[in-house]
Amino acid sequence: MPADVALHFDRVRTKGSHDDLRLRIGPYQHRCDSYYFALDDSPIVPGGLGLRLSRLLEQWSSQVASLRDGGGTVYLPYDFSDQCTAWLRVSSSDGQTAEVQAGWSLIEGWGIYPSDYLSTASAVADFDPIAGAQVVCSLIDLAARIDANRTTLEATGS
Fold first, then answer.
1. 3-class DSSP state for residue 49?
2. Where would a tag sit more exposed on the chain, N or C end, judged by fewer CB atoms within 10 A?
């Protein structure tokens, strides 16, 4: 059973591609679209939306795991829009504790494949935090929460 980290990324509807995803972090909630996942024609992830969302969280897991080797900062995208993207900034100073903060970047969503966003994540230089959209937890608990969300999203199918 994953630790109770106040971070959830889930599908709220399985029909349509607008306002069908939700990120909850602490008391903050944000609805977003799966539209850009449907446009992602990368051969990395064939199949339905559930598999594409699972691939996104697989990349999140990999980035969070990299912080256990002494800390650092990584960016995890969750909303892809025409003129901007929303990200989680995960920072760890000690490789054990994480501060997770939601925010925005002017990096345009149409230029990113959700199935392979890592090169863009390293270019986030204009992160604008959202007030009140933050949690602090252990990296281990964060990884467990991401894995639980990944399993749930994959099971949603197309």
1. helix
2. N
What would the two tokens of residue 95 be? 């490789």
pTM (2 d.p.): 0.94
Contact by Cβ (8 Å): 150, 111: no
- Tell me the C-alpha distance between 65 and 3, whole Å: 16
Q: What H or E segment, with its residue span, contains residue 77?
A: strand 72-80
- Does residue 78 sit in helix, strand or coil? strand
Q: Burial, 127: exposed, middle or buried (Cβ in 10 Å; 0-12, 13-18, 19+)?
A: middle
For residue 107, count CB atoms less than 10 angstroms from its CB and return exposed for 0-12, middle for 13-18, buried for 19 or more: buried
